[in-house]
Amino acid sequence: MTATQELTKNQSLVFDALTRAEGPLSAYTILDQLRNNGFRAPLQVYRALDKLLDYGMIHRLESINAFVACSHPHDHGHSHGMIAFAICEKCGQVSEFSDDVITARVREWTNGNGFKPSKTTIEIRGVCANCGTA
Amino acid sequence: MTATQELTKNQSLVFDALTRAEGPLSAYTILDQLRNNGFRAPLQVYRALDKLLDYGMIHRLESINAFVACSHPHDHGHSHGMIAFAICEKCGQVSEFSDDVITARVREWTNGNGFKPSKTTIEIRGVCANCGTA
DNA sequence: GTTCGTATGTGATGTTATTACATTAGTCAA
DNA sequence: TTGACTAATGTAATAACATCACATACGAAC
Ligand SMILES: [Zn+2]
Ligand SMILES: [Zn+2]
Ligand SMILES: [Zn+2]
Ligand SMILES: [Zn+2]
User: Fold this and answer.
1) Which residues of A touch B84 (CB under 8 A)?
2) What does CATH list as the number for B7-128?
3) CA A75 and chain centroid, separation
4) Across all strands, nucleotide nearest A44 (CA–C1')
C-alpha cells in the first residue's frame, strides 16, 4: 500500500491536502481545509494521518506538531537510514535529507549502549537560505 | 545565572521537581506536584520552565512534550556541540549525549545549504538496556 | 519616593490529541 | 443468504498541552 489511488477516501483527502500545501500543516488546519469535503471532527484527520505515517507517505514534525508530505515519493519507507528535517521558521519550508554518517553514528551509540531504537527524530529549526538573504 | 541558589522561588521549585524526578515530567505533572507549594496555574510552571531552558539547566523533549533536568550540571550551556537524547519508552529514563561527528555533519549540511540553525533536536525513542533485557 | 524591569497570581482561552461509542461498508465462509 | 469478521467512518465529549490578558508585588536604580 504505497500508491495514492489505493488510499481510502479520507486518507486521500488528507494526503492531497498535505501534498498541495507549501509547508507543514497542523491536524486542525487540515481539518478546516476539509470541512467542505465532509470532515467534521479531529479524529477523521488523525486516523488518516496515522495510516499515512504507517505507509511512510508523510512525516510528523515533532518540534512543531505538524505534518508534511514526504518529499521522496519513490522511497516512502526510507528503507536505508534515518531522515533529518530542516524547518524554516520564517517561510515554513521543510527540507528533508538523510545522512549515512549521522545514521551510522546514532547506531554506534545505540549499539554501544544496548538501546533498541524505534523512532529517531532529527529536526533543525532555523532560517532557510531564501529567508536569510531576503 | 547558572547556580540553583540564584533562581527565583518558582524557578527553584520547578528545577528541584525535575531534579528529584527519575525521568522527564510534563508541565502539568510539575504543576500537580507543586500545588502544595502554592502553584495554581500552568503559567507559573511554563514561566519557570522558560527561564530554566534559557539558563540551559533543563531540556525540553519535543517528541514527548516533557522536560528533564540537564544531566551535565557543570556544562549547562553545552557550549560545544549539540545534544542528543535517548528516551526509554518503558521506564522513561533519558540518556543525554553529544557527538562531535553528528554535530559536524549537521553543520556541513546547514553551511552547504545556507541554512541558519537556531535549535536542533535529536531524540531517539526506544527501549533502554535495562528494560530490553528484563 | 518614583520609575522601571522582573517576577508573580489568576482566569480565560487557544491548540493539539485521545477516548468512547455507534454506524457503515466490504470480505468471506457456512 | 445469512452470519461473522475486519476495516473504515461519524460524532460527541474529554484530556493534554500551551498561551493570552490583565492585575499585582517586589527590588534595584535614580
Ligand atoms: Zn520522507
Ligand atoms: Zn524560509
Ligand atoms: Zn544537558
Ligand atoms: Zn528503560
Assistant:
1) 106, 109
2) 1.10.10.10
3) 13
4) D9
Residues of B with CB below 8 A from A121's CB?
62-63, 121-125
Residue with cell 546547514: B110
Model pLDDT, residue B4: 43
Q: Cβ contacts of residue A94 below 8 Å, gap of 6+?
A: A23, A24, A61, A68, A71, A85, A86, A87, A88
Q: Which segments of A1-107 are extended strands (E)?
A: 58-61, 66-69, 83-88, 94-98
Percent of chain B exceeding pLDDT 90 equals 85
SS3 A80: coil
Percent above pLDDT 90 for chain A: 85
Q: Where are the domains of chain B?
A: 7-128
Q: Which helix (H) or strand (E) holds B16?
A: helix B9-20
**Are B66 and B24 in contact, with CB atoms under 8 Å apart?**
yes
B88-133 pLDDT tens trace: 999 999 999 999 999 999 999 999 999 999 999 999 999 999 998 8
Q: Residues near B32 by Cβ (< 8 Å), separated by ≥ 6?
A: none
Strands (E), chain A: 58-61, 66-69, 83-88, 94-98, 116-127
Beta bridge partners of residue B95, listed in sequence order: B86
